């Protein structure tokens, strides 16, 4: 380390003299913190995006009920569908109802069975496909509401099957929630790993600078003064490393965001980050810096307490 | 300091490191304000250990120590720094902070005590001038000679005007001329009211401060060749 002339150091450091030799962004610590912050921010972004996707999808389908008329004879199927719609639309709490048009049904099965298999377009008999009725309730679907609808529909359309839309996606939601919990656990583990890395760095720095610390102690320096020096040093490293880590994470998150946008795949489209999520991501390096400074302070004070 | 001028009182003090035998045994003596004390004894007699007790780097294994009227054995750890600021120390190996300049090394006790840069600049320059290092203020210790490092260490020890100055073999690493100059420096400080305790095995030094009192350590025990340790102390003739 080169020692700058005193006047230069005092000028640069606003009169503050470094008790322990420090090189800004030197050594492995800032880069360890950069990697930790980048991984934390990416894991947090994934968790938040999953949370957004689950919330948006749940809001979208939580009041949705699907009625299927599973009847092979087309004319009976059409009649039962019309009767079921009439029976449901007069029920209290129904916000909307529509029969899914044949064209939409054809489009739904086209990827698996090809075109024209229902025979609807050519007016020919084809594979019987159930009629679908999409019902929107004013609130969330409860088992009681579902049973009421099923009971009413059964009277006019014996071939009907009534399902809450959220039931279909329940396993998907559960899987997404598990991933969200996993992301949060990763964030917590990274925070612990960061604290452990800082603890080791602080102990190592204490060992390296033991002579200076002893001198400062013998000249009447307090534990708090020594701890402040280490806290500040780690704080600079953590702030620098954190900024680099956040920049890296933002590049990754934005790049992944573009990739998922390109998929145009249902639930994934709901996983965009909100402005409050970006604030959380921006807070990661700040929180990492505070955690690093607190860890350094507590470590140094703990070690110093063993000295007279 | 007490009314009778006592600044340090050791009462049957013993010190051992770990489970080894005692390196200091049954020390009972009093140091008085404004006196110049030489602590002599062969290598391994316990001089450095006794000095470590004086500058509060160590607590004794047994016995009592009173410093500036305060029982330091029961003094809470948090209050030790304030007590330490009243004692200036010149270490045998100087113990300058390598990455700080001569100026910053000397300023360290004042910074630790919370003085502003504005307040400490004048005194630090004055004292470096006084020890003849006005032109080496920005030099790091590694570029200073042994004698210059010693003078920086002395300047650092006295910059905060301590009530007592403790020096461990301060002339051990310098030539005869420099040793004489350093002792004159200590004598000058003593005449300004600072109690000085100098550990040395160089008996020639004793003659250079005629009014000094001698404490002799022998295998961790204190002998009293001059009567310096009695109260009132008798001057060396």
TrEMBL record, chain B:
It is found in: Cell inner membrane; Cell membrane. GO terms for biological process: cell division. InterPro entries: AAA+_ATPase, ABC_transporter-like_ATP-bd, ABC_transporter-like_CS, ABC_transpr_LolD-like, Cell_div_FtsE, P-loop_NTPase. Keywords: ATP-binding, Cell cycle, Cell division, Cell membrane, Membrane, Nucleotide-binding. GO terms for molecular function: ATP binding. Residues 8-237 form the ABC transporter domain. It is a peripheral membrane protein. Signal peptide: none annotated. Belongs to the ABC transporter superfamily. Homodimer. Forms a membrane-associated complex with FtsX. Part of the ABC transporter FtsEX involved in cellular division. Important for assembly or stability of the septal ring. This is Cell division ATP-binding protein FtsE. It comes from Novosphingobium panipatense.
């Amino acid at each position: 380390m080169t020692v700058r002339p005193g006047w230069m150091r005092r000028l640069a450091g606003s009169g503050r003299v470094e008790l322990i030799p420090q090189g800004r962004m030197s050594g492995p610590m800032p880069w360890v913190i950069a990697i930790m912050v980048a991984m934390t921010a990416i894991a947090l972004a994934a968790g938040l995006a999953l949370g957004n996707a689950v919330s948006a999808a749940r809001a979208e389908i939580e009041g949705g009920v699907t009625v299927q008329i599973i009847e092979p004879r087309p004319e009976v199927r059409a009649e039962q569908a019309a009767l079921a719609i009439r029976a449901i639309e007069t029920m209290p709490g129904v916000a909307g109802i529509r029969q899914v048009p044949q064209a939409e049904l054809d489009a739904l099965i086209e990827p698996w069975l090809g075109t024209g298999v229902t025979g609807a377009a050519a007016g020919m008999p084809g594979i019987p496909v159930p009629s679908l009725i999409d019902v929107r309730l004013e609130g969330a679907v409860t088992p009681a509401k579902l049973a009421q609808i099923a009971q009413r529909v059964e009277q006019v359309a014996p071939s009907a099957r009534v399902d809450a839309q959220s039931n279909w996606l329940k396993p998907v939601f559960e899987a997404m929630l598990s991933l969200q919990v996993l992301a949060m656990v990763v964030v917590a583990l990274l925070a612990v790993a960061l604290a452990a890395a800082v603890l080791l760095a602080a102990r190592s720095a204490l060992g390296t600078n033991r002579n200076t610390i002893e001198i400062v102690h013998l000249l009447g320096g307090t534990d708090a003064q020594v701890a402040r020096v280490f806290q500040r040093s780690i704080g600079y490293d953590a702030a620098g490393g954190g900024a680099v880590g956040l920049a890296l994470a933002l590049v990754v998150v934005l790049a992944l965001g573009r990739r998922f946008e390109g998929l145009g795949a249902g639930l994934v489209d709901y996983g965009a980050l909100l402005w409050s999520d970006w604030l959380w991501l921006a807070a990661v390096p700040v929180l990492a810096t505070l955690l690093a400074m607190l860890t350094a302070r507590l470590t140094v004070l703990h070690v110093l307490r063993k000295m007279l | 300091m007490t009314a009778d001028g006592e600044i340090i009182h050791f009462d049957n003090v013993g010190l051992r490191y770990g489970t080894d035998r005692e390196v200091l045994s049954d020390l009972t003596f009093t140091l008085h304000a404004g006196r110049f004390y030489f602590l002599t004894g062969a290598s391994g007699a316990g001089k450095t250990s006794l000095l470590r007790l004086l500058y509060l780097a160590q607590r004794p294994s047994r016995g009592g120590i009173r410093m500036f009227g305060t029982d330091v054995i029961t003094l809470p750890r948090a209050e030790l720094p304030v007590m330490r600021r009243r004692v200036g120390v010149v270490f045998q190996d100087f113990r300058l902070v390598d990455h700080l300049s001569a100026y910053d090394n000397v300023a360290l006790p004042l910074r630790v005590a919370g003085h502003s840069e504005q307040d400490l600049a004048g005194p630090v320059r004055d004292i470096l001038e006084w020890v003849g290092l006005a032109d080496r203020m920005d030099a790091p210790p590694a570029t200073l000679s042994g004698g210059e490092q010693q003078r920086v260490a002395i300047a650092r020890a006295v910059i905060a005007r301590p009530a007592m100055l403790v020096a461990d073999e301060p002339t051990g690493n310098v030539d005869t001329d420099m040793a004489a100059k350093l002792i004159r420096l200590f004598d000058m400080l003593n005449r300004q009211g600072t109690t000085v305790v100098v550990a040395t095995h160089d008996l020639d030094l004793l003659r250079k401060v005629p009014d000094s009192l001698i404490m002799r350590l022998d295998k961790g025990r204190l002998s009293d060749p001059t009567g310096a340790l009695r109260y009132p102390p008798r001057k060396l003739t």
